[in-house]
Amino acid sequence: MKAEDKEKLRQLLAKLIEALHLIISEGLKTGTLKPRYQPYFRWKLIEFEYSDTGIKRKSAKGQEFAKPYWRAAISSIWQIIINTPLYRDIFALISTTYEVKEAECDLYLIELINKVGGNILAGKNNKVSDAERYINLFLKDLEGENQEYRAEVKLAGLLLQSRSIQLDKNTRLRKPTRRDFERAVPVIFPSRGTFPLQDPTAFLHVRVYDTKGEMILENEIDRSVALLRLFRVGAVQDLQHSLDTSSIIHMAGGTLTTGRLLRGDTYLITKEDVKTLKKFWSNMKSVKLPTAQVDELSIAYDRYSDSLEGGSIEKHISSAVMGLEALYLKEVDELSYRLSMRVGKLLSLTEGEYKPGEVRDNLKVAYKIRNKYVHGVILKTEQIKKLVEEKFAQIMIDYLRASIVALLKRPSKDTLISQLDDSFLDSTQEEEIKKLLFMPYGKRRH
Q1: 101 lies in which domain range?
Q2: Nearest alpha carbon to residue 25 among 63, 62, 80, 67
Q3: β-strand 267-269 against 158-160: which pairing, if any?
Q4: 28, 176, 220, 322: which has the fewest C-beta neighbours closer than 10 Å?
Q5: Domain total for the chain?
Q6: Helix or strand holding residue 303 (H, E)
Q7: Alpha carbon distance 438, 176 (integer Å)
Q8: Based on the domain organization, do 10 and 103 belong to the same domain?
Q9: What number is the average pLDDT over the span 119-142?
């Protein structure tokens, strides 16, 4: 685009925004522009406490009130603007200079008028600098430049000691605050507003920069949740997320609530863990996550996710064992022995402090439980009580989690199994195995 054409368009857009101010001011004075009203609800908390064990809160009687809703007014403003010579001049300049189809050009200008007009009616963005900001963003869209796309994600499954953790320049974790639970929300379910069915224990803020970043943003949310789920054993999940963007013409907004609640274990990120978490986060950028392609690693990750869901302890253990089978077995005989030996050997070579003998013994017990479960045999009450006290299911799930992380370099399964088996007779094979493993934590974990 020629510099003179861009400057001309900038001047015409400034006149358009000025015209919007005049039309809205006149419409409000004469009463031709009137809002509709949307019911909203806000809780006022009596008590709010966030600790290493979770959230403790009580809700007082909430307040219901109405907020003005200007969509119908914006539509009438659009009908006035579209018939002006100014609009036609802008339309012609955009469609010819940027080779934009007529229908798309109309859509782009509708979005500009919706955003600017809506904020003027709401009493926002009434300064000259605000008009310049909208014009700059609109021109960036037309010229195919990157825009900012933002997400706020309500998480369950982890707790924070630190108020906020900057994981990278575009990703931040933070504690929930009282204000998060006292936000005004549209009345859908008055007792809860639009909050998820489970209280969030942490908030994740994600940004991406792209020309059409909504799908990239969704992928980044999924990746972030997967990373947090793999850092430690915990049923980390996206309960609900809200999207927003600085783009004028590319829509990204609204709130999405998950329909599936894991209701599993929650882990705590202490202040001492922050350095390790940041190292883990940075190193994980160099590998494809298990969700990136269909292979034994993705099958194992699916079983890992299954093991984090609610259900019986037998289900947790069986899901973890099946995930380990996907990684370590290819035979149909001597399964329990081979599985326990290979898992014990590999985990002893990772960053975690795993004792091979202990791993082997635990896996033998787990395999018996798995076989009983798949054949419909229920454990006795005293057996279940003992497993719960020992946190046996969490131990098995952690074996699977640590194995998935260690194998993110995706070594050949045949090569890995061959070297694991050889290492029982030839200890020099251990160094070769270590070369196959991914070690993202940067230090031994406790």
Answers
A1: 3-35+70-142
A2: 80
A3: parallel
A4: 28
A5: 3
A6: helix 296-308
A7: 33
A8: yes
A9: 86
Question: Is residue 248 located within the same domain as residue 311?
Answer: no
The mean per-residue pLDDT over the stretch 271-299 comes to 92
Q: What share of the chain is helix, strand, coil (3-state, %, to 5)?
A: 50, 15, 30
Element (H, E) at 24: helix 3-30
Is 393 found in the same domain as 325?
yes
Structure token pair of residue 400: 């699977």
Q: Do the bridges between strand 185-186 and strand 147-156 make them parallel or antiparallel, or are there none, so unpaired?
A: unpaired
CA distance 95 to 89: 10
Pair 163, 263 in one domain: yes
- What CA–CA distance (Å, rounded) separates 227 from 54? 21
61 band by pLDDT with thresholds 50, 70 and 90: confident
pLDDT digits (tens, 9 = 90+) for 192-231: 444 555 789 999 999 999 988 889 999 999 999 999 999 9
d(CA 405, CA 438) in angstroms, rounded, equals 7
pLDDT, residue 192, reads 46
Tallying the residues shown for the chain, one arrives at 446
Beta bridge partner(s), residue 41: 64, 185
Question: Which of 161, 156, 167 has the alpha carbon at shortest distance from 50?
Answer: 161
From the list 141, 146, 173, 139, the residue with the least C-alpha distance to 158 is 173
Q: Coil, strand, or helix at residue 410?
A: coil
* CA–CA separation, 179 and 82 (whole Å): 41
CA distance 408 to 280: 13
**Sign of the dihedral defined by the CA atoms of residues 10, 15, 19, 22, in that order:** positive
Cβ(174)–Cβ(205) below 8 Å: yes
Alpha helix ranges (H) inside 329-446: 335-348, 356-374, 381-389, 392-406, 413-423, 429-436
